Amino acid sequence: MSSAVRVHGLWKRFGQQVAVAGIDLDLPAGRFIGLVGPNGAGKTTTLSMVTGLLRPDGGTVEVVGHDVWRDPVEVKARIGVLPEGLRLFERLSGRELLGYTGRLRGLPGAEVDKRATQLLDVLDLAGAQHKLVVDYSTGMRKKIGLAAALLHNPEVLFLDEPFEGVDPVSAQTIRGVLERYTASGATVVFSSHVMELVESLCDWVAVLAAGRIRAHGPLEEVRGSAPSLQKAFLELVGARERDAGSDLDWLGGGPR
Amino acid sequence: MSAPTAVVVRLKLSLLRNGLRQSAGRRAAYVASAVVVLLVAALQLVGLVALRGHAHAASLVVLLVAVLGLGWAVMPLFFPSGDETLDPTRLVMLPLRPRPLVRALLAASLVGIGPLFTALLLAGSVVSVAHGATAYGVGVLGAVLGLLVCVTLARAVAAANIRLLTSRRGRDLAVLSGLVVAVGAQVVNFGAQQLGSSGLGRLDPAADVLRWVPPAAAVGAADSASEGSYGSAAAQLLLTAAALGALLVVWERSLTRLMTAPDGSTFQAAGSGTRERRGSSGLARLLPAGRTGTVMERSLRYVWRDPRTKAAWVTSLAIGLIVPVFNALQGTGSPYFACFAAGMLGIQMYNQFGQDTSAFWMVALSISSTRDAYAELRARALALLVITLPYTALVAVVTTGLLDDWPRLPEVLGLSCALLGAMLATGAWTSARFPYSIPQEGYKNVAPGQAGLACTAIFGGMVAAALLCAPVIAVTIWLNVSAGGDAWTWLLLPAGAAYGATLTCLGLRLAAPRTAARLPEILTAVSRG
């Protein structure tokens, strides 16, 4: 089995805070891969370093056999990215944004326009294609971001929280497009903290907590004997169910 | 201090501290700019104290304070300021009454370099005009009131404009305020010329009016008390206090409205309709293919569509035209002033990636070699030149025409080209080396803690650009003073243009490898807004 992404000894520190503490990962190609972990586990930091948007303090990253930092020409042409918390060029309309991204990536103009039309159609954005992205809702932004990431037909797609704040209808659309994309042999790596979603979409997961990998492998393996990924996850990250009654006895409705 | 006041002041101090904590370079830049400001403040304090007893001291001091007040009024709109660290809209969800909130924010606004500078200037002004114990008493009261008026003025203007700046339509209107700076600069310029031509006595008529306008009235009161006219002094103090009261009311009202009414984003979502546009604009067909055309088209669209970019451009265009043309109209101009347009417009090349905000990641992902970075920077420079070059030529022609000094047109054009080239070169280099964030929310031009960095980049770059132009300036002077040199000044047009083009190419070549090597660092630096 070939790997889409190979990470070795990845480190990142922000001042005193260690965000990513030595990650080793081998993500298989052609799979739908979920990177799960609680908030602050280092998911965004890891994805930023893997995609070349953040310089690691140590370690190596290879995407489809090419080193991200030594061979950016090969890597950047092969990946699509949808980051979380970064803007788009919002003063362009949806269609203009796709035209800009595609041409920046060196695709011929006519091909960009053709692909943009199809993507806008499939993602249900055709009606809003001439509206400025600044006026888009969260779901529409995620969808236009996804379209921009798919435009150059990448081999590996990295999505940071693609379903965060997205309405169920848009989520279903995004899901459909991603399933079709992986069925053709491409790899999707996405991060999320919603276990049900990961469980229903992914066939391979990596669990991240406090900057370290706690478990990784095919979904069934990671889930093990636990009834759901949620339970397995809580065990892995060591979250115990506390007896809430003793601490918050003042909390509750009723007369004051 | 009441509870919210103490909390907000502490919040402001922690924000300042945290902004500085981010990197040693940023801290150094901030400390350096603080030292410069304090040095200037100390020098003017000494100067004002030395002025004590001079016949026209009062007029000068009153005018100075009036200009200072004007500065406070426009500062929150146009200049990177560490004073706006506390955005009232972030406190919306807290159960705070407007009055304690105003008190707390006012106290917090008094913390910083700006208020310290103002306090020193007011103190110096009082020392230079006050004679006798009563006058000093009035002066101290006046200085305190004056400082409060200045700070409140800035706050009230900022609060009134935050609504404008957060609605999309309103932001476009705010562009007009750029003209306020242009006109203000013109007033100062005009005043300085009057002084140069006929001494400090010329200030008296203006000062006679301004000494009744707060915050200058506060210093006027000290002067009146020195002359024994206690009635006037009391009236001037009262006027300042009334102005303070009025400003506080205006500020409190806009704060209340700000915190209770829906903000611009809500209106926008409700009201905007879908406008149909053609697939590709006419503009695109005129631009070159590939990355160059794509980036140029995006840059030019942003000049028109992005309110921040638009405001910066309108200000640059207005000042670049007003300064040389007004001077020419007043008969005090020189055709060389036309170079001002090139300098003002060249500033737009600075902090290119900061103008992208965190959307720079889209650019970063598409740059994988020095050649890509070079193409990106060159396209941005070309987009700038599409507007700048004809505009600079127009300003040069209009200015020389008004002065009827046509023989100087070639050398003015040559100098403008050289300066523009130098600005583009230094702008490209500083864009790669000193990127900083331009916050998109609120009304700041620089993220907290990055103001020093921004100033270093802009002013350092401008000094470097001036130095780079020195050879062309030297040749211009030499041709103008040497016998028979006039016959050859036309050579300065091709020479200046070639020199400017060479500088730009060199600047882009130097900036490209730095950009390509520092993509993640640039992205981090511009993503703080």
TrEMBL record, chain A:
<keyword id="KW-0813">Transport</keyword>
<dbReference type="GO" id="GO:0046677">
    <property type="term" value="P:response to antibiotic"/>
</dbReference>
<dbReference type="InterPro" id="IPR050763">
    <property type="entry name" value="ABC_transporter_ATP-binding"/>
</dbReference>
<protein>
    <submittedName>
        <fullName>ABC transporter ATP-binding protein</fullName>
    </submittedName>
</protein>
<keyword id="KW-0547">Nucleotide-binding</keyword>
<keyword id="KW-0046">Antibiotic resistance</keyword>
<dbReference type="InterPro" id="IPR027417">
    <property type="entry name" value="P-loop_NTPase"/>
</dbReference>
<dbReference type="Pfam" id="PF00005">
    <property type="entry name" value="ABC_tran"/>
</dbReference>
<dbReference type="GO" id="GO:0005886">
    <property type="term" value="C:plasma membrane"/>
</dbReference>
<feature type="domain" description="ABC transporter">
    <location>
        <begin position="5"/>
        <end position="235"/>
    </location>
</feature>
<dbReference type="InterPro" id="IPR003439">
    <property type="entry name" value="ABC_transporter-like_ATP-bd"/>
</dbReference>
<dbReference type="GO" id="GO:0005524">
    <property type="term" value="F:ATP binding"/>
</dbReference>
<dbReference type="InterPro" id="IPR003593">
    <property type="entry name" value="AAA+_ATPase"/>
</dbReference>
<dbReference type="GO" id="GO:0016887">
    <property type="term" value="F:ATP hydrolysis activity"/>
</dbReference>
<keyword id="KW-0067">ATP-binding</keyword>
